[in-house]
Design a protein that fits this description.
Shape: elongated
Strand order of the largest sheet: 1-2-3-4
Distance between the termini: 47 Å
Strand content: 5-15%
C-alpha cells in the first residue's frame, strides 16, 4: 500500500524515519482499517448527517409553504326525496415576506452548528486513529515480550540441564540446581502472563481496527515533528478541531443573539389561495371557482417577557461560548506541550534503555565467564541474566512509548487525520450529504444558498 502525499501545508511534517524488513506499510494499513470500519467513527458520521438536517429545517422557513385541502359531503332529504352533494378542493401557498431577518439568521446559525460538528467529527477521527496506533504498538510490544520470554525459558531449560550435569559430578550443590529450577518456573509464569497480555492486545486491536493482526508489525512512515514545542503549539492553535469547533460555536452564538434581538421586529407574510367548489342536488348544481391574495402583518407588543428572556439567554450563551473558546485554547496549548515533553522523554528513554541493554549484556557475559572458573555463583549468573532480560523488556517498551508519544503530539497538533496523514483511503466527504439535504443537490438550491450568503454579508451577520 502506497501512502499518498497530503496536499495540505502540513505535508512537510511527514517523512519516513524508520523502515523495517517486514510489513513496511503495516501501520498505515492499520490506520486505514480503523478509518474505514471503526463503529465509533461511523456513529459520529451518522450524527453529523442528522445535524445537516437542521440546516434543511432552517432553510424551509425561507421557502414557500404549500398546502392542498379538500372536503366532500353527501346528504339525503327524505321529505323531498332529493340527494345533496358538495365538495371543495383548494390550494394555499404561504410565504414569509419579512421576519426581521430571523429566518436568515436561523439558517446561518444552523450552518455554523454543522461546521462545528464537522470539527468534532475530525476530533473523533483523531481519537480513533490514535487508539489504532496504541493498539498496533501494544500488539507489537507484547509479541516481542512473548518472544523474549520464550527465549528466556529456553535458555533456563539449558541452564537447568547444565546445572544437573554439574551437580552429578559434584561441581555445584543441590541449592544451585534449585535456584535454577525456581528461576525457570518464574520464567514460565512470566511467559504465560506475556501470552495473556498479547491476547488482550490482539482483542483491542480487533475492536479498534476491525480485524486481528495477521503479520509481524513494523511501524514505518512515522511523522516527523516540529523542532520545538513552540512551533507545535502554533500549529495546534490554528488547526486543532477542538479550537475550530469552539470558534464556530462562538459565531453561532453571536448569530443566535442577533436573531433573538430581531424577534421584536414586525413580520409580514403573504398568502395565495385558489379553490373550486361544487354543490347541488338531483335537481340543480352550483359550481364555483375562487382565488385570493392576502398580506398579513404583525408587531409583537408583549409576550409575557418571553422576548427579553430569550435575549438574556442568548447573551449568556454567547458569554459561555467565549469562555469555551478560551478554555479550548488553554487545553490545546497545555495538551500539545505536555505531549511534546512526553515524546522527548520517550526519546531519551530509548537511549537510556539501549545503554542499559549494552551494559547488562557485558555484565552477563562477564559473570558467566567468572562463574565458569568458580569466581561467581549460580545465583550471580541468574541475577545477571534476569537484569539483561529486564533491560531488553524495557527497551521494547521504550520503543513502543516513543511511537505512541510521537502520534500523541500529532493528535494534539490537530494533524492526526486521514487527510493530513495522506492515508490511501477514500476520504469521508461531509459536503455530499450537506449539499443533498440543504440545497437539494440542484443548481437552484446552490444559487439560493449563494444569495443568502450575500444577504447575510450585507446585513453584517
Amino acid at each position: 500500500m502506497t501512502a499518498k502525499r497530503s496536499k495540505t501545508l502540513f505535508s512537510i511534517l511527514l517523512a519516513t524515519t524508520c523502515a523495517g524488513p517486514l510489513s513496511a506499510q503495516m501501520l498505515s494499513e492499520a490506520l486505514v482499517g480503523a478509518y474505514e470500519t471503526n463503529p465509533s467513527l461511523q456513529i459520529a458520521r451518522a450524527s453529523l448527517a442528522a445535524t445537516d438536517e437542521s440546516v434543511a429545517s432552517a432553510l424551509s422557513n425561507l421557502r414557500p409553504q404549500v398546502e392542498i385541502g379538500g372536503s366532500a359531503t353527501s346528504s339525503e332529504n327524505y321529505t323531498t326525496n332529493t340527494d345533496t352533494e358538495s365538495w371543495t378542493l383548494g390550494v394555499t401557498v404561504d410565504q414569509t415576506i419579512y421576519a426581521g431577518g430571523q429566518n436568515l439568521l436561523g439558517f446561518e446559525a444552523a450552518r455554523l452548528s454543522v461546521f462545528s460538528d464537522r470539527q468534532e467529527l475530525l476530533d473523533t477521527e483523531q481519537d480513533i486513529l490514535f487508539a489504532a496506533v496504541q493498539a498496533f504498538m501494544d500488539v507489537r510490544r507484547d509479541a516481542e515480550i512473548v518472544r523474549l520470554s520464550q527465549n528466556n525459558v529456553r535458555v533456563l531449560n539449558e541452564q537447568l540441564n547444565a546445572a544437573n550435569d554439574r551437580f552429578e559430578v559434584g561441581d555445584i550443590t543441590r541449592t544451585d540446581v534449585s535456584q535454577t529450577e525456581a528461576r525457570r518456573a518464574a520464567a514460565r509464569s512470566n511467559l504465560v502472563a506475556a501470552q495473556g497480555n498479547l491476547r488482550v492486545s490482539q482483542e483491542t486491536y480487533r475492536a479498534v481496527i476491525g480485524e486481528y493482526p495477521t503479520a509481524p508489525l513494523q511501524p514505518t512512515n512515522l511523522p516527523r515533528l516540529p523542532a520545538n514545542a513552540d512551533a507545535a503549539e502554533q500549529i495546534a492553535i490554528n488547526t486543532h478541531p477542538r479550537v475550530l469547533a469552539a470558534q464556530f460555536d462562538l459565531s453561532a452564538a453571536e448569530v443566535s443573539l442577533s436573531s433573538a434581538q430581531r424577534a421584536k421586529r414586525p413580520s409580514i407574510t403573504g398568502s395565495i389561495a385558489a379553490q373550486r367548489a361544487d354543490s347541488g342536488s338531483t335537481l340543480t348544481t352550483n359550481p364555483t371557482n375562487s382565488a385570493s391574495i392576502s398580506v398579513q402583518g404583525s408587531v409583537p407588543l408583549y409576550k409575557g417577557d418571553a422576548l427579553n428572556s430569550d435575549i438574556r439567554a442568548a447573551v449568556a450563551n454567547l458569554n459561555a461560548s467565549k469562555f469555551n473558546l478560551q478554555n479550548a485554547s488553554l487545553i490545546t496549548r497545555q495538551g500539545v506541550r505536555s505531549a511534546f515533553a512526553n515524546w522527548q522523554a520517550a526519546v531519551a528513554g530509548i537511549t537510556s534503555s539501549d545503554e542499559q541493554v549494552r551494559a547488562s549484556r557485558i555484565a552477563f557475559d562477564g559473570v558467566s565467564e567468572e562463574a565458569s572458573v568458580g569466581a561467581r555463583t549460580t545465583l550471580d549468573v541468574l541475577d545477571a541474566e534476569q537484569e539483561l532480560r529486564d533491560a531488553e523488556s524495557a527497551s521494547i517498551t521504550a520503543r513502543r512509548d516513543e511511537v505512541v508519544a510521537r502520534f500523541s503530539v500529532l493528535s494534539e497538533m490537530g494533524l492526526l487525520t486521514a487527510e493530513k496523514l495522506g492515508l490511501d483511503v477514500a476520504l469521508f466527504n461531509p459536503e455530499e450529504n450537506f449539499n443533498a439535504v440543504a440545497t437539494g443537490s440542484s443548481a437552484l438550491g446552490a444559487r439560493r444558498e449563494q444569495l443568502l450568503d450575500r444577504i447575510l454579508k450585507r446585513s453584517g451577520n
